[in-house]
Amino acid sequence: MTGTTPQHPTDRPHDRQPTPRPHDPDRPHDLVGIGIGPFNLSLAALAHGVPGGLATAFYEQRPAFHWHPGLLLDGATLQVPFLADLVTLADPTSPWTFLNYLKTRERLFPFYFAEKFHIQRAEYDAYCRWASEHIPGLHFGHQVDSIRWNPERHLFEVDYTQLGPDGEAEALGRTRTRNVVLGIGTEPYVPEPLRPLAQAPGVPVIHSADYLTHRETLLAAGHITVIGSGQSGAEVFLDLLRARPAGAEGIHWLTRTEAFAPMEYSKLGLEHFTPDYTHYFHHLPEAARDDLLPRQWQLHKGIDTDTITAIHDELYRRTLHGGWPDAVLTPGVRVRTAGRVAATRVELHLEHLRQATRTRLTTDAVVLATGYRERPADHLLTGLAPLLRRDSAGRPRIDQHYRLALDPSVTGSVHVQNAERHTHGVGAPDLGLAAWRSATILNALTGKNPYPLPHRTAFTTFGLHERRTPDIPAQSRKPTPLGHHT
């Protein structure tokens, strides 16, 4: 499915948006994107506005855009301001801004009076879906199978399978491109001790990514255990707590971290999510980066203070008539092993990391708010494996323009989105850096700086030797300039 031209005045993104030229199937693309999540959607939106035009195509195996549908809880908000949309921080005049989305829906005045700097996640999902339905060159229901470099043509060849409504293969296809961007996103992480139970049918062990799908079943359980103390764990715990009767809550909330800690949200703390910090982190030695990342968990794995307050308020309210709620919150605990009891109950073998004590907990359901990991791309990059340069840990080397380090014989580029935390730091999955990263990629691809970026973005000077926004490299590796076709 490709983006379609809006048919109603209220659906038009913006009258100034240029009409895309039809793509000649025999002509290679300038850019092919794999995956259509928020980050590649940002790239597609900004690529659509490059002067002179770029021939682009983006492929996604899902039938339509959806952003964490299992966690679109009523009232749950983004942890970044609405300005962290697909394009604003690189091009606030773009037709794909969140504000223009509101304009097309005739909702600007209600938003103005609502005075919401942090919008609900469901609204962000709706905004991205609107963009995905109108940006040209997006192909849903297309599963990319492989990428390889053709040295004779100086092009990448991308093979894909077109999928039917039920996910069955309908047709095979191939496209050629000068450059590729991988934006295949992350996948839910299930700790090893719980994987057999999470994969077993009939056992209520689910990841928080699927929470809303299983919410009614969870609410019917006699006892529920939530594992993980990030924002998702807090929101799931709060939602379950509010829905269960006072005095019979029957909830345990466990986490490995030392505390149910707030996310670092001070003004200077937030400067770790600026391009300035990204450049600083990228230039650190590999060992220093690997040592630093785990120490920064509170920058991105903590809990929003409003959510912590709401949890405490709800627990306190349940003590007003005497007694304590049947809710146990314990940090510093890990799950050693887990097994099934009877047909459907789960037994968790727990260890307190500081006390070095152990116990068992029997529960009727488990929600794993254990986060996400980068989705492996090795199966896509098999054809490029001999050309790919890796670091001492076997991870791809990624330069400051988000390009994989490839053999010099490869004249095209493979860029990555949200797969570079080991080289670019905690900001890799942050929505606030999406537009800036997309602009960086497009500037590097075109060599024309279509999106001028600021040279300074933070008051903090990270390191004794300042590093600012890098200059766009010369495009001597490119066989032909992008955006000029005959």
Alpha carbon gap, first and last residue: 27 Å
Overall morphology? globular
Structural class: alpha/beta
Rg, nearest Å: 24 Å
Mean pLDDT: 91
How many distinct beta strands?
A: 18
Residues in helix, %: 10-25%
Strand order of the largest sheet: 3-2-1-7-18
Q: Summarize the biggest pleated sheet.
A: 5 strands, parallel
Low-confidence stretches: 1-10, 14-19, 474-481
- Beta-strand portion reads 15-25%
Q: Specify the number of helices.
A: 13
List the helices and strands and how they pair.
Blueprint: E1 31-34, H1 38-48, E2 56-60, H2 98-104, H3 108-114, H4 121-134, E3 138-140, E4 142-150, E5 155-163, E6 169-177, E7 179-182, E8 186-188, H5 195-199, E9 205-207, H6 211-219, E10 224-227, H7 231-243, E11 251-254, H8 275-282, H9 286-292, H10 297-300, H11 305-317, E12 327-330, E13 333-341, E14 345-352, E15 357-363, E16 365-368, E17 372-374, E18 413-416, H12 421-424, H13 434-446
Parallel strand pairs: 1-2, 1-7, 2-3, 7-18, 9-16, 10-11, 10-16, 11-12
Antiparallel strand pairs: 4-5, 5-6, 8-17, 13-14, 14-15
Helix pairs in contact: 1-13, 7-11
Question: What is this entry, summarized?
Answer:
The protein has about 475 residues and is an alpha/beta fold. The chain is built from 13 helices and 18 strands.
